[in-house]
Amino acid sequence: MDLIVKTLEGKDAGKVSLSDTVFGLEPRQDILARMVRWQLAKKQQGTHQSKGRADVSRTGAKMYKQKGTGRARHHSARAPQFRGGGKAHGPVARSHEHDLPKKVRALALRHALSAKLKADELIVIDALVAAEAKTKNLTGSLASLGLTNALIIGGAELDSNFALAAKNIPNIDVLPVQGINVYDILRRGKLVLSKAAVEALEERFK
Q1: Mean of the pLDDT values across residues 86-101?
Q2: C or N: which end of the chain has fewer Cβ atoms within 10 Å?
């Protein structure tokens, strides 16, 4: 499939041929959902921790004698039903990660790229280069392309002026091609790829 290449100023700069094996798949929501769940689980800190009855600082002595008081039998005041006692079945520090096959992760990225192309939300830019690190200038360029919420993917090395200029623009994320991921693609409205990024992605999935 051929797609028109744009410059940062919004002008046409020829065409680029996109591989059907990378950008021409029929998007599958189940694979994308699995990938997003895997990414978010891997990202979760898992540092939540509550104190159980073994962790609270309180006497472990029996509260009162077992029989003869007319009251319910109890042992330690650390039990969950008492004020100041430990929490029953509370959260513990743990990893939320789970396995997802490498081939499924690679397939999910291709489905995410294909979904953006099918939804007409994929733009290819000739080169992501800024003459100076000025946010105001770059904001104007992005506005001319209709980009207010986008993920921008450059080549293996990002232009430092472009990266600095884009840093303070809300809802605009800039990543090198090796940092491209399904979650960031789906959470932003438009996907912007440089020609270098397109070549790198097609080489990666050969």
Answers
A1: 96
A2: C
